[in-house]
Design a protein that fits this description.
The chain is built from three helices and seven strands; from the N terminus they run H-E-E-E-E-E-E-E-H-H. By secondary structure, the chain is an alpha+beta fold. It binds nickel (II) ion.
């Protein structure tokens, strides 16, 4: 396994729309394992392939405190969503920024697993937030884009300053 480099907002590659996976093979399983390792090391509770500059529809999550509930979603689609809930979100691609976002409270997601088999999952709470946040990444959308233009500009300035300081 290997740690992958996570792209940081406002990197334009975060806006590339991911393509569906047409065959779940060893190459895909290796990438999923590397993404999981990268997510746990960060540490984070979700990671989309887009964030590691691989533009295919795959994401991993583990919202447990015990780090033993890894889930992989390939070609995920939200087929039902209900209610509204506001959660404070963060993102490994937007380090140090936490902002409230309104999303569906409950979702049903359909995806393929690492064997290429379809499954459906109903989620609420933090897992529902996380899946919606990661699916947005696959569509080229970063959570800060839900915020006002003014807030987005401030976040961009802050992150640019940080990346200059890090050089
Ligand atoms: Ni994110």
């Amino acid at each position: 396994m290997a740690l992958l480099k996570i792209l940081h907002y406002p990197d334009p590659r975060l806006h590339i729309v991911a393509k569906p996976v047409d065959k779940v093979d060893d190459h895909i399983r290796k990438l999923a394992a590397d993404m999981a390792e990268t997510m746990y090391a960060a540490p984070g509770i979700g990671l989309a392939a887009t964030q590691v500059d691989r533009h295919i529809q795959m994401l991993v999550t583990d919202v447990s405190d015990t780090h033993d509930q890894l889930m992989t979603f390939i070609n995920p689609q939200i087929v039902e969503s209900n209610g509204e809930a506001v959660h404070e979100e963060g993102c490994l691609s937007v380090p140090g920024i936490y902002e409230e976002v309104t999303r569906a409270e409950r979702i049903k997601v359909r995806a393929l697993n690492l064997e290429g088999e379809p499954f459906e999952l109903e989620a609420n709470g933090l897992l529902a937030v996380c899946i919606q946040h990661e699916i947005d990444h696959l569509k080229g959308k970063v959570f800060v884009e839900y915020l006002s233009r003014l807030k987005q500009d401030r976040i961009k300035q802050k992150l640019k300053k940080h990346s200059r300081e890090a050089m």
